[in-house]
Design brief:
The structure holds two protein chains of two kinds. Chain A is α+β, with helices and mostly antiparallel strands. Chain A contains two helices and five strands, in the order βαβββαβ. Chain B folds into four domains: 160 residues, P-loop containing nucleotide triphosphate hydrolases (Rossmann fold, 3-Layer(aba) Sandwich), CATH 3.40.50; 83 residues, Helix Hairpins (Orthogonal Bundle), CATH 1.10.287; 205 residues, no CATH class; 201 residues, no CATH class. A seven-stranded mixed β-sheet of chain B has the order 2-3-4-1-5-6-7, with helices on both faces. The longest helix of chain B is centred in the C-terminal third of the chain and has 35 residues. Classes of the chains: A alpha+beta, B mainly alpha. Strand 4 of chain A pairs antiparallel with strand 8 of chain B.
């Protein structure tokens, strides 16, 4: 299973499924990370975490640990 | 008609600027009940008796963050006559996600398509009429920053409130069939106008919404949701969110003519490539922080504060008022109250103001231009393991100058847990008012060694970090952790009016507090130190009520090594009014009415009181440690109340600080004393217990639950 965490900077991926529960899960979907959405990883923060991604025409910062809840292909 | 309209929108959509445009100068800032989120209300400019309520910036009407909860409660329960949904036209897709939910509530909606000027400049054409037709509500193009479209917006708001609610978004036939099934089940259990909103929330399994209906209805809804999941082969909340975005995709395809932003690098992208660059990110962060420190703490801000303290109050107001009172033969007691109690008390507080205003200008600029979000992005990894936000660095840095603006700077932290923990720990870092105390102890006992000051800074950082770990587990105090999924907004030039306005708002909020709580608390300490129990004014603080209080409380500090002399207890109490008072109080107690700032004159007396040799030094250091970590001055406590929301929580926070200070000083003194050959004292056992307790708090999974259970002794828990 590939998750958003495995996507390297500069690569694109399509969201397959959002895992996780409660606030985290809802927040991920509210921010537009939904099934079928294309996400591009822009860069990793200077200290190695979080990562910056771009989707639906805007930029988001997400921790690697949270990115693991997002299955991609 | 209740004559009230609400402003709703995502964070960073220009909502604050729009609110200022719509209300002019008629604003009132309060709090939403039970949470520390600003509730701003004002009157619609040019209209009689129509109130505008500014809802907090949110991405969704979900039931998780306090911002979301107050917003949806307001829309559903208070039912404003109309909602102005401010939509950032440069980020239409994500902004319309909230719009789909607001439209379902069944309140008339007007969309303000904000930042339209920026969109036009980028060569994108949004068909306003098509957008309006598709969404089923009026759309007005605005630029809050430039003031364009505001009059038209006001007209549309009034017309919409007259006309009533429009239509709501239609999703795929599949989802619609389930929505109508749910609607049939819940009709009568929820307000008729909001059936659609509830139906969608129920399908998402929104627990807070489900509380509104009886259990059997909720079960019925659950069956429908399960059936839908079967058909779609997906989870219910994911289906609903996906359908909303699909719907938005359709709207945008029809209304946005040339969306050529995607794949094209904007100016903001280019700036960001440098600012959060793997190698340059940290040096740039350091440079920005240094600039803030330099401007607010070492130069302009401090010059302003020094001028207010030394010139305005020290040379003009206090001597002036004093002279006037003497010339007019005012009774000595009254004159004392006015000059030393009130004027000096207000001065001590107003003195913070120049530095605070300079700092707020800088912080609002950082916030508005988009760098603040990058601070969190760059520093998150370091701070999050201590329960803090990457943005916590700023309050702590500011706290080295003064804890009051430091605490107020925590407002920029979006997670309420991280914000509260930062507000409770910022004052552990020594502020400039604590420096004279450090200098006094270093001078009296440590041959003015610079190591004393350095060690106190490290102790402050140490306390912040261990407190982060401990407080993060105190859920009833700091709340549940929120996921850190944060928008990185495009960089833009901050609007000058927003900067000035936000700065003045914050400054004014502090002045109001200064005029009430802080002044009262300072006046009480002054009163206790200036009068005896017969309420006659005393010349010598030795005869005052405070001296007796010190004598009766000094035993508390015996285990810390400085409980034999009541003067140290008094110094600690007067330090609450302002930390530098510790030195001044010692001056008076040891017979020097006007000592120098660091009290060189009586260093030998202080040294003698703490006792000879290394044990005396240890007792002095223990005194210093306690005074650095324990409750900050009243001004900082007042600021803390502003961020924690209630006196109850503020009291708990201050108690935590005092207990931590006691534990640290106890451990330092008792273990130090054994190492230095001071012999065994029974208090060593207490220190050992405190150390074990501290380690337990740091390592246990949920220590506060255990403590709570121990205190409450609820049989049900056993």
């Amino acid at each position: 299973m590939r998750t958003l965490r495995d996507v390297k900077a500069g690569e694109k991926a399509v969201v397959v499924k959002v895992n996780g529960v409660g606030h985290l899960r809802k927040r991920i979907m509210d921010m537009g990370i939904t099934k079928g959405c294309e996400v591009e990883v822009i860069k990793v923060a200077p200290l190695g975490d979080p990562v910056e991604i771009t989707l639906r025409g805007y930029d988001l910062s997400i921790r690697k640990q949270d990115a693991e809840s997002i299955e991609v292909e | 008609m209740s004559n009230r309209i609400a402003l709703a929108g995502n964070p960073n959509c220009g909502k604050t600027t729009m609110f200022n445009r719509l209300t002019g100068s008629s604003q009132r800032v309060g709090n939403w009940p039970g949470v520390t989120i600003d509730r701003k209300e004002g009157k619609l400019k040019g209209q009689d008796g129509i109130a505008v309520v500014d809802l907090p910036g949110i991405y969704s009407l979900s039931p998780y963050s306090p911002e979301e909860v107050v917003s949806r409660d307001f829309l559903l329960k208070d039912r404003p006559d109309a909602v102005v949904n401010i939509v950032d036209a440069t980020n239409l897709e994500r902004n319309l996600y909230l719009t789909t939910q607001i439209l379902e509530v069944g309140i008339p909606v007007v969309i303000a398509l904000n930042m339209i000027d920026v969109v036009r400049k980028e060569g994108i054409d949004i068909d306003k009429a098509e957008l309006s037709k598709r969404l089923g509500c009026p759309v007005v193009e605005t630029s809050a920053l430039k003031g364009d479209g505001i009059e038209e917006l006001v007209e549309e708001i009034l017309a919409a409130a007259e006309r009533g609610a429009g239509s709501y978004p239609r999703y795929s036939d599949g989802l619609e069939s389930y929505l109508s099934k749910v609607s049939d089940v819940i009709k009568g259990h929820v307000p008729d106008e909001s059936v659609r909103w509830y139906a969608a929330k129920f399908l998402e399994r929104d627990e807070m919404a489900l509380e509104a209906v009886p259990a059997e209805v909720a079960e019925e809804v659950e069956k429908i949701a399960a059936e839908m999941e079967n058909e779609f082969d997906d989870e219910a909340d994911s289906i609903v969110a996906g359908e909303r975005y699909n719907y938005i995709g359709g709207v945008i395809a029809a209304a946005v003519k040339r969306d050529d932003r995607r794949g094209k690098e904007t100016a903001s992208d280019k700036i960001d490539k440098i600012i959060t660059n793997r190698w340059l990110g940290l040096p740039i962060f350091a440079a920005v922080m240094f600039t803030i420190y330099y401007i607010a703490i070492t130069t302009i801000g401090t010059l302003g504060s020094d001028w207010v303290n030394d010139v305005l109050f020290g040379e003009i107001l206090i001597p002036g008022v004093d002279e006037w009172l003497t010339a007019n033969d005012v009774n000595g007691v009254l004159a004392g109250l006015i000059v030393e109690g009130i004027v000096a008390g207000v001065g001590a507080v107003v003195g913070f103001l120049p530095q605070m205003l300079v700092l707020f200008v800088l912080l609002v600029i950082l916030e508005e231009c988009g760098y603040m979000a990058r601070v969190a992005f760059v520093m998150d990894r370091v701070f999050r393991r201590f329960g803090l936000s990457g943005k916590s660095f700023i309050p702590i840095l500011v706290g080295t100058g003064c804890g009051v603006p430091g605490i107020m700077a925590t407002r920029a932290i979006e997670g309420s847990k991280e914000r509260r923990i930062t507000a409770m720990t910022t004052t552990f870092i020594p502020c400039s008012a604590k420096l004279p105390v450090i200098a006094m102890i270093a001078g009296a006992l440590f041959f003015q060694s610079a190591w004393v000051a350095l060690s106190v800074y490290f102790m402050g950082i140490f306390c912040i970090l261990i407190s982060g770990v401990i407080l993060k587990k105190w859920h009833s105090m700091t709340g549940a952790p929120a996921p850190f999924i944060m928008e990185l907004p495009p960089y833009h030039v901050p609007g000058i009016f927003t900067v000035i306005r936000s700065t003045l708002e914050r400054g004014w909020a502090f002045c109001k507090k200064a005029g009430t709580f802080i002044m009262l608390a300072c006046a009480i300490v002054w009163f206790l130190s200036a009068f005896d129990w017969g309420l006659t004014m005393v010349d010598d603080i030795n005869d005052s009520m405070l001296a007796d209080i010190g004598k009766s409380l000094k035993w508390i500090f015996v285990p810390l090594g400085w409980g034999d002399d009541w003067e140290f207890t008094i110094g600690t109490i007067t330090g609450l009014a302002a930390k530098e008072n510790v030195v001044g109080t010692f001056g008076i107690l040891f017979g020097y009415a006007e000592p120098s700032e660091v009290g060189e004159e009586f260093w030998d007396i202080v040294a003698a009181r703490f006792g000879p040799g290394s044990l005396g030094q240890l007792a002095g250091y223990s005194f210093l440690a306690f005074n650095m970590i324990c409750a900050p001055c009243f001004a900082a406590i007042g600021a803390m109340k502003g961020e924690l929301g209630s006196w109850r929580d503020t009291g708990k926070a201050v108690l935590y600080q005092c207990v931590l200070a006691y534990v640290i000083s106890l451990i330092i003194f008792q273990f130090g004393s054994i190492l230095l050959g001071g012999g065994f004292q029974i208090w060593l056992l207490l220190a050992a217990a405190a150390l074990v307790g501290l380690v337990y708090m740091l390592t246990a999974k949920d220590p506060f639950k255990v403590i709570g259970r121990g205190l409450l002794r609820r049989p049900a828990d056993e």
